[in-house]
Amino acid sequence: MIITQSYINQLELDQLAELAKFVVEENFSHHCEETVTSVQLQNDIKEICTEESGYFKNSEIFVVKDPLGSIQGSIRVLKWDYKATLPIQKLFNINPLDVTYTQRVSSIWHIGRFATNKNNQDRTLFRKLMICAIAPICKSENSVAFAECDSKLLRVMNLMGIKTDIIGKPIQYMGSETIPVSMNYEGLKGFYDANRYLVM
Predict the structure, then answer these.
(1) Which of 9, 33, 99, 164 has the maximum number of C-beta atoms within 10 A of its C-beta?
(2) Which pLDDT band holds residue 81 (cuts at 50, 70, 90)?
(3) At what angle do helices 16-31 and 38-55 cross, to 10 degrees?
(4) Are 10 and 62 in contact (CB under 8 A)?
(5) What are phi and psi of 59, to 5 degrees?
């Protein structure tokens, strides 16, 4: 999917290493005040690359690139096949099948790998990426999505009208306080309808 001047692209399988490097480096750059060793960076990059390779057939990864081809932002949406271990299971020991829902659920999604270049000045970047990620979720009233959000990002999401439910205690992950959340169709649809023009 290419939008406007090919700034938003869907990532291909052979670009996962580029994605993993971007996500890890930007997360530590935004959130971590301590020096991170190159060994730790490389281990995290390898772990994310391996994880995303396993998810790839059921996921869509969107990246915003500048005219020179450098990634400025990323996000991934995954439709759960009920077999793969989701990050929310691995990091928080939360099984989506054990969560209580207010509606009947027919599909479970996971949103992850959100990152933006610390120096990017595009104020709509977050909204563009989020619209790409939640578009398939907003096609069904019986969809629910999970994510692990940095505490600062979670505040921004709520201010922008994305309604979330916190479903566990925060942990430290990739340099920041990370909180497990769930989102349903009702909590996402208002944001989607108000912002989808950005990627039309």
Answers:
(1) 164
(2) very high
(3) 130
(4) yes
(5) -130, 165
* Residue 132 burial (CB count, 10 A): 24
Of 131, 151, 146, 139, the residue nearest 183 (C-alpha): 146
User: Is there a contact between 68 and 32 (Cβ–Cβ < 8 Å)?
Assistant: no
The CATH code that applies to domain 8-199 is 3.40.630.30
* pLDDT at residue 1 is higher than 50: no
Three-state DSSP class for residue 179 = strand
pLDDT at 170 over 80: yes
Cβ atoms of 52 and 44 closer than 8 Å: no
Helix ranges, 56-176 (H): 87-92, 125-134, 151-159
Beta bridge partners of 59: 78
Q: What are the backbone angles phi and psi of residue 21, rounded to the nearest 5°?
A: -60, -45
Strands (E), 44-198: 59-65, 71-79, 107-116, 143-150, 165-166, 171-173, 176-184
What is residue 174's predicted lDDT score, i.e. its pLDDT?
A: 72
Provide mean pLDDT across the span 20-26: 91
